Amino acid sequence: MYAPRKKVFWFAITTRIAILMLQVIFNVSIPDHDADAFKRPFDPAEKVSLWDRIINFLFNGLTHWDGEYFLHIARYGYTYENTLAFYPLYPAMIRIIAIILTKIFPFFNIQSTMVLAAILINFVCFVKSAIILYDLTERVFPSTATAYKAAILYCINPASIFFSALYSESMFAYLTFYTMLASVKGMSTVCLPLALSTLARSNGIVNIGFPTYFRLKTLCNSEGTGKWQRKYNVLSILWHILKLIKLKNCFTILSTLIISLSPFALLQIYNYMKFCTSTFDKSLLPIHILQYAVRNDLVLPGRTDSMWCNASLPLAYSYVQGTYWNVGFLTYYRFKQIPNFILALPMLYIMSQCIKEFLCEYRDELYLLGFFHSKVKDKSTIEVKKYPLNVFAFVVHGLFLTMSCLFFVHIQVTTRLLASATPLPYWYCASIMSHKCIDRINLQYESNENMCSKWKVFFLSQKRYTLQDKFVLLYFIGYTIVGCLMFSNFLPWT
């Protein structure tokens, strides 16, 4: 028999192995598309052994698109201005693990060990993120059944290929879910995963709202809720919160913010020093890196004429995204992008439905900022709600990310961005799945047969599927399979 948490662990491993096998099959069966995208320059002097060819044969399908950038940064650093769009934590970890693997497997060249390192990092981070999502859901709801279903759905999420490919999604999901869990629990160590998440992806900085919100919520609860439940305007709530923030609490919140944002600030200073000052010595770069820059008209470090260098607040990320990828407000609203909007539509629908349901359930609590219920309610009345009030912070976070996807980023990125940044899609889909679990005295979260298996889960053995079940599974599994096919052959996907 497997406990639900252990079963999530094994199912996460099973799905990762399945993804690796699928991409090999699709990559071997179909020739790669000649995409007009960045392809990392190779060192012509580097030796390629039979072992390296085997690694390339097995895992080349995972290195496309942004994976090319991450491998390049891991080996050579930020050599071109357009590479600044990719945050350093993931490539830095690839480099560190690759150095260790080179000592263990000296018959691989550095490129092969970096590919292996990236796959290993993603594998470990994905499995850990599935477990953390289970713990987070069980803490927020609390319901073992909901936690189990949400974590299982996460393992087959529609952006699955990006969680195994050489992308930072798995690492970011792990750090984000960890930050959320630590915030809900009120852990003092929340600064570490939060700070690291700001170095993994640009939207990691948004996670800073979680420890702040839950710290304030704890303060409110510690003062008792009786006197709050009669106050019905936002200004009153904010005033009383300010009165609760004593010097010690203020210092705790500020120190969390400063420690969490420090790595992000240091990254901006590093980018400026490298690309906006003339002190960088280009002779330190290998000749094939310089030649690639000349052939492709790429900006090297040390140039001081880039617009972002002379801005009042020199932040490279927004400039690079706008200049090289045309990212900006409504810039993606073109007729030719309609297919990409259709690709993103299921995820946008799931997010909108989840947010709408929560807002409808707690319309009386919204002006109380989700800190407490609007009036005294007996326990049985509160339990019938689909979502607990603690979901308020996650809904605000999810709404912000959804609006950003709709109006600013490339719309097809919505699926993988939201799949790795918020638990809301998994919570919503878990709530509408028809599979029933006994979640009280004798936990029966699965059938007896499935409980004895590492990979058999409820949606694989249901006898009857509702229409909602079919749509959810078609979306999750369909996008997983099609995504493996498209991505592994350098075809455009989400």
- Cα(first) to Cα(last) distance is 38 Å
- How many helical elements? 22
Helix content: 55-70%
Count of individual beta strands: 0
Topology as a string of helices (H) and strands (E)? HHHHHHHHHHHHHHHHHHHHHH
Low-pLDDT sequence parts: 378-383
| Mean pLDDT metric | 89
The biggest beta sheet is recorded as: none
Rg over C-alpha atoms, rounded to the nearest angstrom = 24 Å
Strand content: under 5%
Secondary structure category: mainly alpha
Give the CA-based shape. globular
Please give a structural write-up.
- The structure is a single chain.
- This protein is an all-alpha fold.
- The protein has helices spanning 4-29, 50-59, 66-76, 89-104, 110-140, 144-155, 160-164, 169-185, 191-198, 209-222, 234-244, 247-275, 287-295, 316-325, 338-361, 379-383, 392-407, 414-421, 424-432, 448-451, 458-461, 467-488.
- The protein contains 22 helices and no strands.
- It starts with a helix and ends in a 6-residue tail after the last helix.
- Mean pLDDT is 89; it is low at 378-383.
